[in-house]
Write a structure and sequence with these properties.
The complex is a heterodimer of chains A (167) and B (535).
Chain A: H1 16-26, H2 34-45, H3 50-59, H4 64-73, E1 85-90, H5 93-97, H6 100-111, E2 124-129, E3 141-143, E4 146-148, H7 153-166
Parallel strand pairs in A: 1-2
Antiparallel strand pairs in A: 1-3, 3-4
Chain B: H1 3-16, E1 21-26, H2 29-33, H3 36-50, E2 55-60, E3 72-76, E4 85-87, H4 95-100, H5 117-120, H6 138-143, H7 148-156, H8 159-169, H9 181-190, E5 197-202, H10 211-218, H11 220-234, E6 238-243, H12 248-263, E7 279-284, H13 294-301, E8 325-329, H14 330-334, H15 336-342, H16 344-348, E9 358-365, E10 371-376, H17 381-388, E11 398-403, E12 409-412, H18 422-427, E13 436-441, H19 446-460, H20 466-483, H21 489-505, H22 509-513, H23 516-532
Parallel strand pairs in B: 1-2, 5-6, 5-8, 6-7, 9-13
Antiparallel strand pairs in B: 1-3, 3-4, 9-10, 11-12, 11-13
Helix pairs in contact in B: 7-11, 7-15, 8-9, 8-11, 10-12, 19-20, 19-23, 20-21, 21-23
The chains are: A alpha+beta (167), B alpha/beta (535).
Bound molecules: flavin mononucleotide, iron/sulfur cluster and FE2/S2 (inorganic) cluster (2 copies).
Chain lengths: 167, 535
Amino acid sequence: MTLPPIRPPLPNDDPRWKLVNATMRRNGYAGHALIETLHSVQDAFGYLDETALRFVAASLDMPLSKVYGVATFYHIFTLKPPGRHTCVVCTGTACYIKGATGLLEGILAHFALRPGETNEDGALSLLTARCVGACGLAPAVVLDGEVLGKQTPENLLAKLEGLVHAS
Amino acid sequence: MHLDDLAELAARHRAEETHEQEIRVCVAASCQSSGSLPVLEALKEACATQGNGRCKVKGVGCMGLCSAGPLVAVAERDAELNSSLLYRNVTPVDAPEILASLQGPPVERLRCPTDQPFFQQQVRIVLERSGLIDPESLPEAIVHGGYSALIQTITEMTPAEVIREVTASGLRGRGGAGYPTGLKWSTVAKMPSAQKYVICNADEGDPGAFMDRAVLESDPHRVLEGMAIAAYAIGASKGYIYVRAEYPLAVARLETAIRAARRAGFLGARVADTPFAFDIDLRLGAGAFVCGEETALMASIEGLRGQPRPRPPYPAESGLWGCPTLINNVETFANIAPIIRKGGAWFAQIGTEGSKGTKVFALAGRIKNTGLIEVPMGITLRAIIEEISGGIPDGKRFKAVQTGGPSGGCIPEQYLDTPVDYDSLKTLGTIMGSGGMIVIDETASMVDVARFFMEFCMSESCGKCIPCRTGTWQMHALLEKIARGAGTDEDLALLEELCEVVRAMSLCGLGQTAPNPVLSTLRYFRHEYEAKLRA
Ligand SMILES: Cc1cc2nc3c(=O)[nH]c(=O)nc-3n(C[C@H](O)[C@H](O)[C@H](O)COP(=O)(O)O)c2cc1C
Ligand code: SF4
Ligand code: FES
Ligand code: FES
C-alpha cells in the first residue's frame, strides 16, 4: 500500500499560491503538469523564485534539480523579477529584415539596457522574442502585453520614455 | 446525429438571423495590433443608431492583407471576400461613413481594391472560412459546413475508407518535411494498441511565419474537426494541441472552440451520439524552437525538457507515454475536412504531380503587401513576389527570397520562375518548410543574413548533442569574423567543412538543417563572402 504523498504547506499567505495549487490539483499533481504549473506561477508572480521552485518540486513530488532544469530550459520562464514595464522586441527574421536591430540599439543607447536586463529603478525590462506572429507589421514590439507594429527607434523610445517617467 | 440533423441545425441557426448585409471587421491578432477592436465597437454603435436592422456587424478572422489593417469588409451575407467591398486602415471615426455607404456610394478614400492579384490569384481551401465567419461562434462554423465532414466519417465511413480518401488526396504534411499524410495515418492505424494519441503541432517556431496562428485564430473549429477525423481513422480517443504561449489570442480562441464543441457533442464521450469517443486538451509551449520537433514536443507535453530523442522508434510506433501517436501540423489538419467533403480525387487535381493542393504562405520582409496568402502548389515564385506581394517598395531591387525558415535557404533572382513545390525547392537547396517567405532586397548583406540564422540555431540548440551544440557556435563565430571583414580563406574553408559535419552528425532536424542558410547563401552569393575576406 502506498501512502498518499504529503503536500507541503503554502509558502506564505499570499493568495496567488491558491492559483498555483489549483493548477496542480486540476492535473492530479501529475509530474507532466510541471510546465503548466510553472506557467501559472509566472502568470501570478511575474517570475519564478527559489521559494516557488521548491514549493512546486515538493508539491509534485519531484527533485528540485528537475524543476530547475525545466525552468531554465524554456525561454519564457524567468528567474529574475521583471520591471514594472516590459518591452519585448521581436528579433524574428521578418523583424530583423525590417530593422529590429535598430530598435535594440536605440534602447541600448538611450536606456543602457541589453536584452534580459532591467534598469536600475526597476521601471523597465527589455526582452527579445523569436517572432510574435505579427510579421506583417514588422518590426514588432510587445509592450506590457500589447503588440505594437511598424515601430521605428524614434517612436518606440518616445513611448518607453513616457512609460518610464509616468511610473 | 446524422448529416440531415446537422443540415437542419445549420438551417435553424441561419433562420435565427435575418440580416442581409454584413460588416466584417478583422479581429485576428495582426489587425488587433493595428487597432481593430475599437473599430468593431464604433461600427456596432453606428449600426445600432444608423442601421436599418438588415445589417450585422461582426468580428472575423484574417483576410490576408494584414499590413493594411485594420481591414473591414462590407458584403452581402455569405458573399466571399473577393466580391465584397474592402476598406483598409480603418479607424473608429470612419464608422458612420462606412455605415452610410451601405445604401450609398463606397467610401473611396478607404477602398482597398479586391481585383488586384493579391486577392485574385488565391485559391482558398484551408482559409475558406477565414475572414468570413466569427471565429468565436460555433453556429457560424456549422452554417458554413463545419463538422459535416466529421459526421460523414463517423456515420458513413469506415476508418479504412477515411485513410483511403486522405491517401488519394496526395496531401503531404504542412509542418515542414512534407511526409505523405495518408501513409502516416495508416501506419498509426495499423498499430495494435488500445491507447493512441493525436497531437496537433501548433508550435510554429519558424520565425517569420504566422500561417498556423492565423488558422487557429480565424477558424479553430476546422482544426478540431480535422483532429477528430484523424482520431476516428487511427483509433485514438485523446488529443493534444501543443500551442505556443506567444500566441495568447490563438490559445483563447482554441479554448472557446473546444468548450463549444464539447457542449454541442462534437467532442467528448459519445461524439455526435455515436460510440466514437474523442476529446482534446491544450498544452502551452514555453518558447523553445526545438519543441516543434516531434519527439521534443512530446517530451514537453510530458512535462520534461523539450529535447529530441533518436528515431526510430517513430512516434507512430512509440510516442506520447510510449503509445502510438499521430502528430500533424495545424495546416495539415485544416485540409482534412474539405478532403472528406469533396473527396481525395478533387484535392489531387489541385497543385502539381508531387505536391497536391494549396499552400498557405506568410509573406513578409521587403515587399508592398505583407500578409497571408493561399495559392495552388506549382505557382511560380515570381507570381508570388512580383504580382501577389506587389513587388519591392522604395525603388529597391529584389535580392533573394528566403523560404523554409531557419532550416531553409535563400533563392536568388535567376530562379524566380521555379514552381513552388516540395521537390523544386529542394533542387534549389532550400525547402518549402512551413510556409514562411521573407523577401530580402539589395540593401541586405547575405553574410549578415547567414550570421543571423546561425545565431538563431546556436541559441535554440537544445545542447543534447555536440556537433550541433558546439558546431553552430563555431560556425557563428566564423561568420561573425567574416562579416566583420577579418576572415581568411581558411576560415571560409573551415566554415564549409563544418557545414558538412554538423549536417551529417546532428541528432535532430535542427542541427541537420542548421547549415542550410550558410550553404545556400554560399551557393548563390559566394562573391559576397569573398568580398568580405581579408586578402
Ligand atoms: C527543429 C524542428 C522544428 C520544427 N518545428 C515545427 C513546427 O513549429 N510546427 C510543425 O508543425 N512542425 C515542426 N517541425 C516538424 C515536426 O517535427 C513534424 O515533422 C511535423 O509536425 C509533422 O506534421 P506534418 O506531417 O503534418 O507536417 C519541426 C521539426 C524540427 C526538426
Ligand atoms: S541536433 Fe541540436 S537541437 Fe537537435 S538534439 Fe542535437 S543539440 Fe539538440
Ligand atoms: S518576425 Fe517579428 S513578428 Fe514575426
Ligand atoms: S490579421 Fe487582419 S488581415 Fe490578417
